[in-house]
Amino acid sequence: MLLTWYLLVAVMLTGYVVFDGFDLGVGVLHLFIARTEEERQTLIRTIGPVWDGNEVWLLAGGGTLYFAFPLLYASGFSGFYLPLTMVLWLLIFRGIGVELRMHLDSPVWRSLFNLAFGGASFLLTIFYGAALGNVLRGVPLEHDGFFFLPLWTNWNVGPQPGILDWYTVIAGLVAVVALSLHGANYAALKTSGVLNLRARRVAAVLWPMLVLATGASLATTLLIRPGLLDNYRRIPALYAIPALVAVSLGAMWKFGRSGNEKGAFLASCSYLVWMLVGAAAAVYPNLLLSTTDPALNITVYNAHSGDYALSVGLIWWSFGMLLAVGYFVFVYRMFRGKIREEAGGHGY
Amino acid sequence: MNDALLLHRIHFAFTVTFHYLFPQLTMGLALLIVILKSLYLRTNNPLYNRSARFWARIFGINFVFGVVTGIPMEFQFGTNWAEFSRLTGGVIGQPLVMEGVFSFFLESAFLGLFLYGERRLGRIGHWWAAFAVFAGSWLSGFFIIVTDAWMQHPVAFLRAPGGMFQVTSFWGLLLNPWAQIQYAHNMCGAVITGVFVMAAVGAYYLLEGKFLEDGRAFLRVAVIVGAIACAVQIFPTGDIHGRYMALHQPATTAAMEGLFKTETGAPVVIIGQPDAESERISNPLMATGVLSFLIYGHTTAQVKGLNAFPKDDWPTNIPLLFYSYHIMAGLGTIFVAVMAAAAYLLWRGRLYSSRWMLMILLISLPFPYIANTAGWMTAENGRQPWLVYGLMRTTEGYSTHVNAGNGLFTLLGFMGLYALLAILFLFLVHRVIAQGPADEPAAEISSGKPVTVA
């Protein structure tokens, strides 16, 4: 039961990264690959009808975490108080940037909103990467199960680290590369003409960087937290996960070269999924590691809520998510195909 | 009260008050838009479809502001109220996830289709998209009310060793009687905001002498729906809510009414200033026996005053609670009068030419927002000093590891950001109202404009 809910939380957060990940990637890239107002509009139209639904994965994921593991939600959210609040501000800027930019036909107005949209998307990817880095590295949990992290201390991975240290900065950069590439693959899939060309070119440039970044993140993670391999040693079948990450990377390269945009995008989704699954498999049954004393770790066993809630929850949660997946299939079907650049394009 | 606790309280109060300015219009307009779309289907009169389209544009802008200010609410339980979250996640985590899973996915999926899919979906399909958005937003309101109602009137739970609350009945939590009456009262309040906004825009068009046909349609629908909603807001929903509160939160009722001492034939204070130090009302204007009548049905019944309860259990800010309640109830009464007068004029066929009535409807615009805010302040200040009524105090729930300096940092950040949002919102909505209703569907297939959720 606890493992199930652990997996469900992981599914929700992975869903968020895969779906909103390309929104963020497009947000970062639009500053670079769109040169004219028409191009920018076309690019933003690729995420226009879906970004809001994609963001719901974060809300539903946060809620699921709250419901299933209240201690983790309480400790993590209050301990990461400053960066989380900044994420909220950035989500506001991103949402406003996407939605309100076309309400006025003024270059100044639009430039400001482009900057809000692009800048917020960029910073969000860094924050998300650093957040994952913090979870893998651990935090100085106290005896009451809580902690409070400053934004930075001495930038070292010690018992009293900050949100940002050299390791989490690397994690943030990995996320920037991974999500920008994800966004480029999505943009290539949804556009044609010059935008499509530029998106594919960006993807080709980012791909080797992602391979390097993936290797660096793996190496540094094992350097600071060798214990994360314990689950893999116990269950060798788990080594299939990093293998799938490598396969996804390879597929992305192959499809990118052969111009199979759908394949490249799906490979990109699969890369993100297996990276996150790999991390989730390494951390379990811990939810938040302590940098000072492993006995203080927050685990699924000491953080979960009541048995009744969790067992009944499985029923309504599955039902609700089934509906949600149905809406997603419906919306993405309505919205399938490429956005045409000229006025009168289809889309809805 | 220490600095950190005070800041965390202001933090939540400020962000939630600002946030709720938007959903009340979202939920109110969602119903009105479904009504307009239904009128269009029934009468085939394109006027109603044009009206629905105009309000959908305002709805879209309003929705975006509701979404971006709503996300911080769900996260603030954890960031600023960590101890509360740790202890109650096993109960109120449930309605909060259900909101995400059952309503946000629904709303977000159909909003884009509703706003930009009119041609593609066809008449019937578009009605269903409007209905899905309505259902999603009203469902979302329900889950939030269930959450708040559990804090007001905890049901269907047990306390595990260590003090954690755990839900013991899925339906018991969702069907909390407090939630049902609070939901009815709150949604009616949202409809009132919707109708006053619609009526004010209609009145503005008529007074300005433009978009006359549309202005009349807005007025017609808003006044008819508004007269019903304003009446239902007082009776039965407000009445039942008040009596339920007197039964389960008697100290709150006493403080709301400014009743410091237990009395038989207790009065209703219409206006006055509570003096919490000397425990009396200054300059009272009151009606004897009315409070007893409202709660118990006869004018000589005994109503418990604050002196019947230990001072530790008194609401922490009695004057604010007293004023919030009186502003809500006073405005609610005025709304009935305004809408009744407007409905009468509409019936007599004189509403559209009655400049003074149109003027009143126009300047009424901000008051439902004030009434809704005051209503929520009554509920939440009235719950004090408890987070979970009778079981967990507010002083026990905040994030003790987040100090006052950090709390103030983010509070100021939110204040600055929300000031910016408020300006943007007024500016954008003003533009839509100035442009007026349009015959063509917005930015759809042929316009070449970027199509986004709003």
Greatest contact pair?
A-B, 78 and 78 residues
Mean pLDDT of chain B: 93
Shape of chain A: globular
Roughly what percent helix of chain B? over 70%
Radius of gyration of chain A: 20 Å
Biggest sheet layout of chain B: 2 strands, antiparallel
How many strands in all of chain B?
8
Order of helices and strands of chain A: HHHHHHHHHHHEEHH
Low-confidence stretches of chain A: 342-348
Provide the low-confidence segments of chain B as ranges.
Answer: 444-450
Helix count, DSSP H or I runs of 4 or more residues of chain B: 13
* Overall pLDDT metric of chain A: 91
Number of DSSP helical runs of chain A = 13
Query: Which strands sit side by side, in order, in the main sheet of chain A?
Result: 1-2
Oligomer kind: heterodimer
Q: For the largest beta sheet of chain B, what order do the strands appear in spatially?
A: 1-2
Rg for CA atoms of chain B: 23 Å
Total tally of structural domains of chain A = 1
Overall 3D form of chain B? globular
Class computed from helices, strands and strand pairing of chain A: mainly alpha
Output the keywords:
heterodimer, A: 348 residues, mainly alpha, two-stranded antiparallel ribbon, disordered C terminus, B: 454 residues, 13 helices, globular
How would you describe what is shown here?
The complex is a heterodimer of chains A (348) and B (454). Chain A is mainly α and 348 residues long. Chain A has one domain (2-334). In chain A, 74% of the residues lie in helices and 1% in strands. Chain A has 13 helices and two strands; from the N terminus they run αααααααααααββαα. Chain A has a two-stranded antiparallel ribbon. Chain A is globular. The termini of chain A are far apart. Chain B has 454 residues and is mostly helical. Chain B has one domain. Chain B has helices at residues 3-43, 46-80, 82-116, 118-152, 170-174, 177-208, 212-248, 250-257, 290-296, 318-347, 355-363, 367-383, 404-435; strands spanning 157-159, 165-167, 263-264, 268-275, 280-287, 302-303, 386-388, 392-393. In chain B, the strands form four sheets. Chain B has a two-stranded antiparallel ribbon with strand order 1-2. Chain B has a two-stranded antiparallel sheet with strand order 3-6. Chain B has a two-stranded antiparallel ribbon with strand order 4-5. The radius of gyration of chain B is 23 Å and the shape is globular. At the A-B interface, helix 2, helix 3, helix 4, helix 5 and helix 13 of A face helix 2, helix 3 and helix 13 of B.
